Each structure stands twice: as C-alpha cells, then as structure tokens.
Amino acid sequence: MTKTITVLPGDGIGPEVTGSAVRVLKRVFEKNACDVQFVEKRIGGAAIDTDGTPLPRDTVEQCAASDAVLLGAVGGPKWDNQSMRVRPEQGLLGIRKALGLFANLRPVKAFAPLIGASPLKSQYVENVDFVIVRELTGGLYFGKPSERRGDHGEKVVDTLAYSVGEIERVVEKAFRLAERRKKKLTSVDKANVLESSRVWREVVNEVSHRHPEVAVSHLLVDSAAMQLIVNPGQFDVIVTENMFGDILSDEASVMTGSLGMLPSASLRKDKVGLYEPVHGSAPDIAGQGKANPLAAILSAAFLLRYSLDMDHEAGFIEKAVLQVLERGYHTADLKVAGEQTKLVNTTEMTDRVIAIL
Amino acid sequence: MTKTITVLPGDGIGPEVTGSAVRVLKRVFEKNACDVQFVEKRIGGAAIDTDGTPLPRDTVEQCAASDAVLLGAVGGPKWDNQSMRVRPEQGLLGIRKALGLFANLRPVKAFAPLIGASPLKSQYVENVDFVIVRELTGGLYFGKPSERRGDHGEKVVDTLAYSVGEIERVVEKAFRLAERRKKKLTSVDKANVLESSRVWREVVNEVSHRHPEVAVSHLLVDSAAMQLIVNPGQFDVIVTENMFGDILSDEASVMTGSLGMLPSASLRKDKVGLYEPVHGSAPDIAGQGKANPLAAILSAAFLLRYSLDMDHEAGFIEKAVLQVLERGYHTADLKVAGEQTKLVNTTEMTDRVIAIL
Ligand SMILES: CC(C)[C@H](C(=O)O)[C@@H](O)C(=O)O
Ligand SMILES: CC(C)[C@H](C(=O)O)[C@@H](O)C(=O)O
C-alpha cells in the first residue's frame, strides 16, 4: 500500500530545508523500494497570503489522511503585526490540535564536532543525551476561558486545564521512551503551587507502577531550569506540561552548540506524527541557500523511525549527518572543530549526506 | 523615629544566614547612629511545627507594621509530604500577598573572582549585569479557580489572571529601575499564544510613552530562555509575569558561578520591602556553620537601599563582599579563583565582611 507524507514547507527557510529532507527521504525510499508519495500543502504565513488563513481546510484534510507530516517552519516579520487577527503560529497550534499530536519529543544530544560552539564548558555538555517530552495539545496554550474581561477590558485570564486522561497518555509515552533508553524519567511540575501540577504528579506516580523498571523523580520547574545548566548530563527522559516544556526545551536547545541541528517529533497513540526542525523560519537568510538543512534531515530520520517503522534507515541518516560534520562540512550557522573545515550551502550539505547514504 | 525590621529566619540554614545579615546591619546602624529595632517572627516549616500554620497571624501583623522584612528561607524534607495540607511555601506566597509586594527584583551579576565556577564559558558571563523584575502577586500562582473538577476529580484547572492595573504597576517599577541603569528594558511574554501576554505587551507599550528615554523590546519567553544562555550580556532590566519570572530568574541565577551570592528584593509602591537570598533552605547543611551568608548579607544591602534610603551604606556592603572574595575567602559552596584561597565558615565569613566595613 502506498504511504503518504504531507510536506508543509511553511515560511522563510522552511521550503529550502524541507526540500533537502525530502531529497534524503526519496533516496532512502528508492534504495528500499518503498512505495511513498509526497503531497505538498500550505501552512503559516504562506497560507495567510494565499488563503487568508494560516491553516486551510484542505491542509488539515490532507494531513489527516497521511501517514506522516513533515513541516518546515512558520512565521516572519511580514505577519508579525500584533493587531493581526490571523497569525502564522495559529497554523502550527491548529495542526497539532487537529491531528491530536499530544506528545512532542525534543531530543538534546551533543554532537562531538560542535561541542566547542556551546556557550557551556565542554565538560558540562559532553555526555548530554536526553529527550524532553512536552505535552502539546493541552494546558495553558489551549485552555478556555482565554479572554479579556471587565467593562473596559481591564482584566484578562488564560486557563491551564488538563484532564487526567490527557496527562496519562503523554506520561505513558514518556515512560515507554525511557524504557528504551536509560530507564530514567524526570517529571517536571510546580506542585508546590499549582493544583494542575499536583494532579500531574499523582498521575506520574500512578503510571509508574506499570513501569517498575523506570526510576522516576520529580523536579520543580524552577529547579529544572537551573539543573539543565548546572548538570544536564543527569537527564534521560524529561516529561512536562505544554508551557513548561516550551520554555525548558528551548533553554536546552542552545546547549549543544547549534540550534540548527535539532529535530522534533510530535506524536499520538498510533504511528501518525508530525516532524519539524526546532529552529525557526529565519527570514533574514531565506532563499539564499544558507540554511542548515540538518535539523530537517534529522526530523526526516525521526519520521522514518516513528511513523514508518524504519528504525534502521533512521539510524543511517543520523550516522551520515555525524560523519558529514566530522569531515568538517558546515553551513554558516555551525562552528565545527577540526583542521580543515569547509563552508557549504544548503544543497551541498544535502548532497554530502546523500553521498554517504 | 525608630525603624522596625522584622526578621523571619524560617527553616534550614535560614536562621544562620539571617543571623549574619543582622550582625552586618547592626554594625551599619551603629556606625550611622540609626535607631532601628529588630523583631523576630516565625514562618514556613518552623511555624507549622509551633503554630500549625506556615504564616501565623502575628507574623503578618508584625510584618505589616514594619519598615522592612528580612527573610531566610523556607521548606525542607520534613514538610515535603505531598499529602500535607499546610506547606512551608504557603508562608512565602502568603506574606508576599499580604504585604502586596508585587515586584520581585532578582539581580544577576558576575563577581569576577567567581566567574571560573560558572557552567558557562567566561566570555559569556564576564559582562553580565542585569535585573529580572518578576511580577509576584498575580498570574498563574494566585488566579482562581485553581481546583479539581468533574465527578471523579478527573479534570483540573489553574488560572492565569491579571488586571491592567497589576501589570502597569510592576511595569512602571521596571521602567524606573531601567532609568537608573542602562536604560534598556526587555519585556518577556508569550504574546503569540496567550491573551494575558497580549494585554501585558500593550501595557508595556503604553507605559513606555512615559519613559521615552528607555529602549524597550519584547521577547517571547521561549526565546528568552535561550537568549539568557547564548547572550546574557545583552540584558539590562527584564520584566515579566510571575511564572515566567520564576523560571527565568532561576535559570539566570546559575550563570554567575554561585547561587549562594544572589540577593532579592520584593517591593511595592511605598518603601516597605521583603528581602531574601535566592538560595533555598539547604537542609543538608543546616546548623553546621557551612552556609554561605553572602546572599543574605547582600539582601540586607538591598534592604538599606530600597527601604531605608541608605544607598551609600548598601554600596559599602556590596564592595566589602567583593573584597572578601578577592582576598580568597570562601565558604564550601564557592569556588573562588586565586593563588591563596581560604575556606571559612559562616561566622568567619561574616566577621570578614564586618571587618572591612
Ligand atoms: C510558535 C509557538 C506557538 C510554538 C509553541 O510554543 O508551541 C513554538 O514556540 C514551539 O515551541 O513549537
Ligand atoms: C517556593 C515557591 C512558591 C517560590 C515561587 O515560585 O514563588 C520560589 O520558587 C521563589 O521563586 O521564590
């Protein structure tokens, strides 16, 4: 049966980096004689320009009928006006919600050739290899009411809402991930203040009975923000609610020396997932061939692993990316260590990865 | 007229470090022939043990009748049981709220002799000197409803609530602080998702008209979490809502090489304020004379500056603390640079500071 991947290039460098990732995927499918079709759809600012909405209905329908979605990036100064009622980010929030992608996996791993570029001293970063599992469709970013109040709009509320079921499913995902890794789970909350965090902690403790081999600990979000810096090597899998995960995963993303290297996966219970690089749309360098395609390519590797059961091929891509760096190839955003470093553009970098595959 | 300072030693190392800070203050008042009385009251776990509540009524009354409050730290494993209905932290949240201390100032400044101990490379930390102004009595940590719902408690909500007035007063404080510093204000929010953040941003832009000489910029909280690490030197004053401030100020606190050095001030419109070290109650070293008193001593300097108009004397204390470090004196938690470093205990460290004064 033909598998379908929907590609949502989005804005800025999105089209360039998804273009690279699709080339890599095509090479893999060719080699393995897989029957996969790619369909491209609009999202974000690009969709606002053509359709007046950041998430056109046929984009949602196409994604819903696909095995996996590969996204570039959304947003840019063109659509940044505060007063605009439609904003590119709504496309991103909307597609996550529409597909029910409740678990956002954000791996943080040090690439040896890039460690020197980290703001942190090498000894803090060397052994870093953890994954943040962020709840993605609940909490403060989706709760209602979210509105102005009072006769003159002088009050405002947002709502952090969770059901036990919403917490349970993402915590379960995190436990399963920890089982396949170093069997260590850190749950982050603010249970000394928030009622929702106390429920979160209870659910984590309950789910832990089903996974006795995983060692669980709880960390307050403010302590977690410190620990990520003073001892990032202690973590294996971190699970936390939407907003805490947003903040902590971005904090963690700068540790490894380049944001341009980080993939992400947004998953649900079945195999359908959305894959996107962690970096933004970088409008300042869009269309110039300067973009680093490696995060998108690594996101494509995640797509193979989580949506198409091609763990082996995912591993090949990851190894190829590491080799390219080891050989000194880098885009402008990366500082690789080594005697002979070679600055390449988006296409050349992609060629290098494909050549190794 | 006699001024009154209420001392709330609290738990763990709280009594030791407030003891040191009071000694330093007494020295300053003696030298300047100031008429100041100290009154000690209970808070946190210590108050739970004796009064059954983390914030006895006479503590609130005494604080309310004082010119300033000096707090040690609250909490410890003894009171950490999840199922307990009274928790030490409630004392802290309660006293802030009772006194209406809406602006929490958290300075982050590199001490030259300690820079080597930072997890960040020296070049990232050298010029760091900023203040985070955290809103302290509103937002998600105080909003109602904050409760379980549903027939079986299967849902839970917390509420992030602000009024325009609550936002305005803390933003105004931050602008005034920026005016006395490098005239640069960074407001942190999540305006691409939260309604409360959009109101926050509007208020910041309005208040900025009253302070045309201050350069204002807006940063999303996830970007802020990154920027604090990749370019902390860019900041002067950061203003943000309660929870974002909680997370970001703790993230920022580990940058300078020791948490044991950081003071904080919680202020309102008049001169009354509450001053406390940023570090916790460190129950593992409590009562052993190992605690670093410098954060509490620097909090006392803040007390002089903000509550007693003794800016000059505050500056003397800050210089004395720096000199003590430069001479190589350190408590066990500090790694000072230099040929001759001398490990001292809490009392000796305090003696050193007083000797210089
Ligand atoms: C653009 C924004 C809504 C989004 C989020 O916070 O979810 C982004 O910051 C992310 O982390 O993917
Ligand atoms: C103990 C807790 C309630 C408190 C807070 O988050 O306000 C603490 O983390 C702080 O930052 O002072």
UniProtKB/TrEMBL annotation, chains A, B:
One of its GO terms (cellular component) is cytosol. SUPFAM superfamilies: Isocitrate/Isopropylmalate dehydrogenase-like (SSF53659). One of its GO terms (biological process) is L-leucine biosynthetic process. The keyword Transmembrane does not apply. Its cofactor is Mn(2+); Mg(2+). Binds 1 Mg(2+) or Mn(2+) ion per subunit. It is an enzyme of class 1 (oxidoreductase). InterPro entries: IsoCit/isopropylmalate_DH_CS (IPR019818), IsoPropMal-DH-like_dom (IPR024084), Isopropylmalate_DH (IPR004429). It catalyses: (2R,3S)-3-isopropylmalate + NAD(+) = 4-methyl-2-oxopentanoate + CO2 + NADH. It is found in: Cytoplasm. Pathway: Amino-acid biosynthesis; L-leucine biosynthesis; L-leucine from 3-methyl-2-oxobutanoate: step 3/4. Its EC number is 1.1.1.85. Homodimer. HAMAP family: LeuB_type1. Catalyzes the oxidation of 3-carboxy-2-hydroxy-4-methylpentanoate (3-isopropylmalate) to 3-carboxy-4-methyl-2-oxopentanoate. The product decarboxylates to 4-methyl-2 oxopentanoate. This is 3-isopropylmalate dehydrogenase. It comes from Sporolactobacillus putidus. The lineage of its organism: Bacteria, Bacillati, Bacillota, Bacilli, Bacillales. The gene is leuB.
